[in-house]
């Protein structure tokens, strides 16, 4: 982190001023801890203004923000380099037109997040493995990414529905009560329980939908519809 970044954090109210002795500003462990906290929240996708508001809300809010992303993160993220595209998408080379197009599609879809200097954060190796399995079935990566892009639109809508359910039924009453300190454990517990319930619900609904879609397709091919 540059000196300029640190000074900008101070000007935004994100970081306390250093202890000044003479013309030298000294930063201690509390400054380092705050900088690490800011970096973690930024990596989770929060803007600096959102981080400033959370930090102003006290330790409970920052802990809750970290818990939100921990609850819904699959914990498998890793950093890969541009030259590793052949391991992400076997048979493709980043220097070819097809390879470049697939890489761009993966970034647009959010599977890869550019970090600069030819480095990318692979946000879900699980999805990458699924893509490799689809390629093994003979499905081109561009087609698999297109299907994933279409599916993501619907999945995002489902995700918003479950998050809204949490906000309306759990968070809103807590907020209306003035954020009582003794209720924070229940708020965090509810968040922890939401993830498996949401994932299980989506999986169950997906199984039903796949069965219905497959049945319809078979009937159409057989001339029954």
From TrEMBL:
<dbReference type="Pfam" id="PF13411">
    <property type="entry name" value="MerR_1"/>
</dbReference>
<dbReference type="InterPro" id="IPR009061">
    <property type="entry name" value="DNA-bd_dom_put_sf"/>
</dbReference>
<protein>
    <recommendedName>
        <fullName>HTH merR-type domain-containing protein</fullName>
    </recommendedName>
</protein>
<dbReference type="InterPro" id="IPR000551">
    <property type="entry name" value="MerR-type_HTH_dom"/>
</dbReference>
<feature type="domain" description="HTH merR-type">
    <location>
        <begin position="1"/>
        <end position="57"/>
    </location>
</feature>
